[in-house]
Design brief:
The chain is built from 14 helices and 14 strands. It has one domain: Rossmann fold. Helices cover 31% and strands 16% of the residues. It is globular and about 60 Å long. The strands form 2 sheets. It has an 11-stranded mixed beta sheet with strand order 3-4-6-8-7-9-10-11-12-13-14, sandwiched between helices. The chain has 490 residues and is of the alpha/beta class. Belongs to the type-B carboxylesterase/lipase family.
């Protein structure tokens, strides 16, 4: 059967019709960042003649192995530096130009891809009448090494520049898939959400999207000098002096670079929590910290939906998993957030693994999200949520852990069966409500629906939508804790 044909500015693409939805996979949005383009800003893709097959996902960025077998549904995709591909789901008969939802995956800036099965866009396209786009971007040392100060065309924030290149591709081409380039909503989780915080501050991203949904991640960057120090440490691992021949970076295999990055990470973090690969304030692509930029109006006119999960930290700290003691974890958190001493606020938490999970939830995820929401209030409407959904009795999902909300937002609950959980009517109802709110936001810039009343966030009542078995709006949840936490993040 002949699949749907989309005519882009680079050539024709043949996708597939699946379950009443047109799907195109593995679309190149930039030139392969290999050889002389390694560690450089992304370049335009080459055009092709004839009809290019777009039925299969493209390779994913090099990343650590999926040891639990859940990231890619038990499959092992091809890993390659040639990874800059995106995927599109669109209603089979779109009619008028539809809003576009542009998903940026998470994974601590070192794992993940737009082809993960939980990010399947069928429900968004079929039930939400939107065009859904998922992307890959360079990860780890290939996407987040601060190398621009070395000259010779090297870039910094390469992974963020990849995201911008994908957004530029969407602006130029999404109308061929039924999408409206003027109605693009970016949404992402964890590192994807932190990426959105950076995009809100990056001059090159201005005008490429009209709304933003941030799930479990706010402004998170490295200072310029720390980024330089990490880059020097990687060069040293590769046997290159900072003032040496940096063109040698193009001579190493991808595996050699990954091995050097792994050695460097162990040396610099001692195995504790930390993110050496993340956006950096380079003074050029990302001139200032995103929280500051948003406070100064960089995201003027962009409606924001933002929230976190009630038990984010319980993904990282669990009773059966050996970990650092409380003081070591606190020092790692101080270094990761650049806050200085957190001893006073830490005194309100138990020194157990549960306390470590709670303080990570409150400071790293919840507090920073509240701060970013407050910074945006003067410039556009903001909606705040908290996800409390759980699977009672499940060894992991009995808490609303980091990442648990994704399959609900996508209405892809079948993914939890891979984790040994059964789908209940209450879970399906929660998924449909959350999914509908995300769709409403893409269509109208407001997540309220006929079934779900959701007032805008404000500093008087701080109304927050709680996603749980019973959806409800709570005024200023955990008020005293919020005051204590946000005060140290200002």
């Amino acid at each position: 059967m002949v699949g749907p044909i989309a005519v882009t500015s680079y050539g024709k693409l043949q996708g597939r019709e699946e379950d009443g939805v047109n799907v195109w996979r593995g679309i190149p949005f930039a030139a392969p960042p290999v050889g002389e383009l390694r560690f450089r800003a992304p370049q335009l893709p080459e055009a092709w003649s004839g009809i290019r097959d777009a039925s299969e996902f493209g390779p994913v960025s090099h990343q650590p192995a999926d040891t639990r077998g859940t990231r890619f549904g038990g499959l092992t995709p091809l890993h390659s530096e040639d990874c800059l591909y995106l995927n599109v789901w669109s209603p089979a008969s779109p009619g008028e130009a539809l809003p576009v939802m542009f998903w940026i995956h998470g994974g601590t800036f070192v794992t993940g891809a737009g082809s993960q099965p939980q990010f399947d866009g069928t429900s968004f396209a079929k039930n939400g009448n939107v065009v859904l786009v998922t992307i890959n971007y360079r990860l780890g040392p290939f996407g987040f090494m601060h190398l621009s100060s070395l000259g010779d065309g090297f870039a910094s924030n390469q992974g963020l520049l990849d995201q911008i290149a994908a957004l530029e591709w969407v602006k130029l081409n999404i109308s061929a898939f039924g999408g409206d380039p003027q109605r693009v909503t970016v949404f992402g989780e964890s590192a994807g959400s932190m990426s959105i915080a950076a995009l809100l501050a990056m001059p090159a991203a201005k005008g490429l999207f009209a709304g933003a949904i941030m799930q479990s991640g706010a402004a998170q960057t490295l200072p310029n000098q720390q980024g330089k120090d990490i880059a020097v440490a990687l060069l040293t691992e590769l046997g290159i002096s900072p003032n040496g021949d940096t063109s040698l970076l193009n001579t190493f295999s991808a595996e050699q670079i990954i091995e050097a990055a792994t050695r460097m990470t162990i040396k610099l973090t001692g195995g504790s929590i930390g993110m050496l690969f993340q956006p950096v304030i380079d003074g050029d692509t990302l001139p200032v910290d995103p929280a500051q930029a948003v406070a100064e109006g960089s995201a003027q006119g962009i409606p924001l939906l933002i929230g976190t999960n009630r038990d984010e930290g319980n993904l990282f700290f669990r009773g059966e998993t050996p970990g650092a003691d409380f003081d070591e974890s606190l020092k790692a958190l101080e270094q990761m957030m650049g806050t200085g001493s957190l001893a006073e606020v830490a005194s309100h938490y138990s020194s157990t693994w549960e306390g470590q999970a709670e303080i990570l939830t409150d400071l790293y995820f919840w507090g920073t999200s509240i701060s970013l929401a407050e910074n945006q209030l003067a410039y556009a409407p903001v909606w705040m949520y908290r996800f409390d959904g759980t699977v009672p009795g499940h060894p992991l999902l009995n808490k609303a852990v980091h990442g648990a909300e994704i399959v609900y937002a996508f209405n892809n609950l079948s993914h939890v069966t891979r984790l040994g959980a059964e789908i209940t009517p209450a879970m399906q109802k929660l998924a449909e409500s959350m999914h509908a709110a995300w769709i409403a936001f893409a269509h109208r810039g407001d997540p309220a629906t006929s079934e779900l009343s959701w007032p805008e966030y404000n500093l008087e009542g701080r109304p927050t939508l709680i996603f749980d078995e019973e959806m409800r709006v709570t005024q200023d949840p955990d008020s005293e804790k919020r005051k204590r936490i946000v005060s140290i993040l200002v």
